[in-house]
Automatic annotation (TrEMBL):
The organism's taxonomic lineage, starting at the top: Bacteria, Bacillati, Bacillota, Bacilli, Bacillales
Segments passing through the bilayer: 59-77, 83-105
The keyword Membrane is annotated on this UniProt entry: yes
Organism in which the protein naturally occurs: Halobacillus litoralis
InterPro entries named among the record's database cross-references: CxxC_20_CxxC
Key words, A-Z: Membrane, Transmembrane, Transmembrane helix
Source domain of life: Bacteria
Protein name: Cxxc_20_cxxc protein
């Protein structure tokens, strides 16, 4: 593990999703897999209990999606670049959103709606 990675792991702001029932910490890839299922209901692989995305976490996801969507729209409206670049920016935006979402993921043992 590089020094930078160690700093990230102990650094402030870096949080991994933690199961509310058994307190197991999920790795980035586990969180990512759960997100890929695109369900609000998530099952902890350590204890098998149902977990849900917390209201705070759903809110962070929504805000991040809006920021990325608006940045893309702004880029589209204010630059004269070929359509291929627009598509690349769009894919990058989606990728960025999915890669960062496990860090924003917060689990709750009860279903919370925005
Ligand atoms: Zn658990």
């Amino acid at each position: 593990m590089s020094k930078k990675e160690k700093d990230i792991n102990k650094g402030r702001g870096y949080k991994v999703p933690t199961c509310r029932m058994c307190n197991s910490k999920w790795s980035w890839s586990q969180a990512m897999k759960q997100q890929m299922k695109l369900k609000s209901r998530i099952v902890c692989k350590y204890c098998g209990h149902r977990q849900y995305l917390s209201e705070k976490s759903q809110c962070k996801h929504a805000v991040l999606s809006i920021i990325i969507a608006f940045s893309l729209i702004w880029v589209f409206n204010n630059t004269a670049v070929p359509i291929v670049l627009y598509i690349i920016f769009f894919i990058l935006g989606i990728t960025l959103l999915s890669l960062t979402s496990p860090f924003l993921m917060e689990l709750s043992s009860e279903k919370e709606q925005l």
